[in-house]
Amino acid sequence: MYTFEHCQDIINKELEEISLKDSPVNLYEPIRYILSIGGKRLRPSLTLMGCNVFSDIIDNAIYPALAIEIFHNFTLMHDDLMDKSEIRRSYPTVHKKWEENIAILSGDAMLVKSYEYISKCQEDILDKALSIFNQAAIRVCEGQQYDIDYEKTTDVSIPEYLNMIELKTASLIAGALKLGALAGQSMSYDTDLMYEFGRNIGIAFQLQDDLLDVYADPAVFGKSGGGDIVSNKKTFLLVSALNSKDKKIIPVLKKWIEKIDFNRDEKIKEITEIFNKLKLKELTEAKIDDFFKLGLKSLDKISIPDKRKIILRNLTKRLVGRKK
Amino acid sequence: MYTFEHCQDIINKELEEISLKDSPVNLYEPIRYILSIGGKRLRPSLTLMGCNVFSDIIDNAIYPALAIEIFHNFTLMHDDLMDKSEIRRSYPTVHKKWEENIAILSGDAMLVKSYEYISKCQEDILDKALSIFNQAAIRVCEGQQYDIDYEKTTDVSIPEYLNMIELKTASLIAGALKLGALAGQSMSYDTDLMYEFGRNIGIAFQLQDDLLDVYADPAVFGKSGGGDIVSNKKTFLLVSALNSKDKKIIPVLKKWIEKIDFNRDEKIKEITEIFNKLKLKELTEAKIDDFFKLGLKSLDKISIPDKRKIILRNLTKRLVGRKK
In the 3-class helix/strand/coil scheme, how is B140-195 assigned residue by residue? Predict the structure, then answer.
């Protein structure tokens, strides 16, 4: 069986050897750049690992995996532009290093390239692979639009927030796993279970991300927390706080959200105190646990001996920060 | 046989009935908007007409035709944003009516939607249809990048310019026709000839467009000319003038190109006079004729009775402004 690290190596090697034309330089250089500045290669590795659950040979999953990774990097390129982010993985973002129009057009070309790769998968699964890929791709766009819409309002319900992260984050993780299962010649029933596994695990990952911004140990997490709090990013914690029944809390939160000039540490401290008071750490951990268990239930149902699922299950545990 | 007008009606009807979700509103409303504000539906009609050359039944060409039209409108949405154009088909452009990020993301979703439609084509041609579509899509991106690059320099050769318009404009027209031929169950040899027909005709269309900006009769063309001259747009005429052997002309042209404050009519008049002096009207007309004839040669070679090609040939003639 292939480990996560082995799959990452395969993907990194494939990406290094990816064939891209030299010109126009301003179209292809940003693509080479964003693909070269790292990243965990989680999604394409999940495609390979999803395949490996059903098949010892994972070669058929490589093109779909690359399609997923190129698509994911396309979304980063356009999201960074839309969010005006200047740094991605410690490097300047494409629209900063080049310019906005180049980020638009290179992103477009990457989206086309991702379809070139999904088109290369075996002919007998092409139709289904495209359907999975199309569905994931449009859901990611929908999720990103809700995310942008929700930036402008404090009136977001918890179900709306969960739907948004399912679309924006979980649908690509689920699609990546489902494509892997499909490439591994899984039965249709198992392919759908793999999607459900990925969907729930994907939501759990995002909630874990939300949690770590506030409660991570900086020594372990590698960056000082509170960035989401400072930027008013809608997270499960903030949305939960804004939906709190304790009506005294809402005006305090809104005051902080509206403030232009503030002391960063003070804002983080005060909002974290509200989160603590509302026991949102515990609530979020419980939610992560719910989705994690729901995901594992689907993985368990897949009609394959358990020993073929252990690596995937352990990776998932690691990613949602569970010791056992 | 189906006429152009009949094909336009089919496409317009299909576009009216296209199924798009209601929300997120800011993702789907701009797509509905750009698809509803008209346009000649030339490319998708060419897909239907390309199919009709080989087959009386054109139903199989409808999904590829819609894919082409949605893709074309995606390029308009992103190109208008990159060019900062405010008006498209007498209506405000998407980034003006909404905002820039909405134009980016709705455009992305349209590109995904175009792949949804190409994915719906018959399974026995899916692989080839994707390959044609992918190739056209990436070429359009490459052409747009060269176009942007060439805006910033006066040092563009005629072959570079022709390559740029081939990529940006002709490759989608050629791809549209080739997809139609494929959907009409044409032989591979004929499918390639249809591409060559479209490629040459597409270049001729663009040269005709370049010509009409300067030499159209406003009463016929419906808008006053010279817009390309005013905006320094690289056209076949301007590129030819900048490559003129008459070295006295270059500094005059460059002076006009660099001028920020100028009288619009004076600029049009003086540059048109340079074009006249260099006989660029005649040169461009001769080039159009070359590409037109090359295109027709490919159409003639297609192994189908000539009577099935007449409507397509006559449309082409009409579009490159030929009386006979």
Answer: HHHHHHHHHHHHCCCCCCHHHHHHHHHHHHHHHHHHHHHHHHHHCCCCHHHHHHHH
Candidates B126, B137, B148; nearest CB to A126? B126
Half-sphere exposure of B177 (CA within 13 A, CB side): 27
- The pLDDT tens digits of the residues spanning A173-218 come to 999 999 999 999 999 999 999 999 999 999 999 999 999 989 987 6
pLDDT at A309 over 80: yes
pTM over 0.90: yes
Domain count, chain A: 1
- For residue A270, which amino acid is it? E
Is A208 part of any domain?
A: yes
| A23 pLDDT above the threshold of 80 | yes
Beta strand pairing status for A91-92 and B87-88?
Answer: unpaired
> Tell me, what CATH number does B170's domain have?
1.10.600.10
CB within 8 Å of B277: residues ≥ 6 apart: B249
Residue A212 lies in a domain: yes
The range of the structural domain enclosing residue A117 comes to 4-319
**pLDDT category of residue B320 using cuts at 50, 70 and 90:** confident
Q: How far is A92 from chain B (nearest CA, A)?
A: 20
Strand locations in A134-240 (E): none
Report CB contact under 8 Å: A26, B78: no
ipTM entry? 0.96
Residues in chain B: 324
Q: Is B324 a domain residue? A: no
| pLDDT tens digits along B154-206 | 999 999 999 999 999 999 999 999 999 999 999 999 999 999 999 999 999 99
Q: Shortest CB distance from A131 goes to which of B26, B119, B134? A: B119
Question: Mapping DSSP to helix (H, G, I), strand (E, B) and coil, where does residue A38 land?
Answer: coil
Has residue A324 been placed in a domain?
no
